[in-house]
Amino acid sequence: MKTANRLAVFAFAVALNAAAVAALHIAMVDGAERALVANEEVEHVVVSATRTSPALATSNCPTMPNAL
Question: How is residue 65 annotated by DSSP?
């Protein structure tokens, strides 16, 4: 009977440790994914066109006629 109790306690301890390691793994993966997302840089848009006249820009933006 003593051996059966020890085996049951050992099996419970192994199962508990496996669950703890799995939870730790999930937390670490989640933290790593969040760190990767936080380090992403926003893509910059480079405009390589020539400047147009202010009259054309104003005519294309009827809601803000005095913006330029």
Answer: T
Residues 29 and 40: their CA atoms lie apart, in Å, by 17
Model pTM score? 0.50
Tell me, what amino acid is at 4? A
> Which residue in this structure is represented by tokens 């003593």?
2
Dihedral pair phi/psi, residue 46, rounded to 5°: -105, 125
- 58 CB-contact burial (10 Å; exposed 0-12 / middle 13-18 / buried 19+): middle
At 38-65, the pLDDT tens digits run 887 777 778 777 776 666 666 666 665 5
* Cβ proximity of 17 and 24 under 8 Å: no
Give the whole-angstrom CA distance, residue 36 versus residue 29: 11
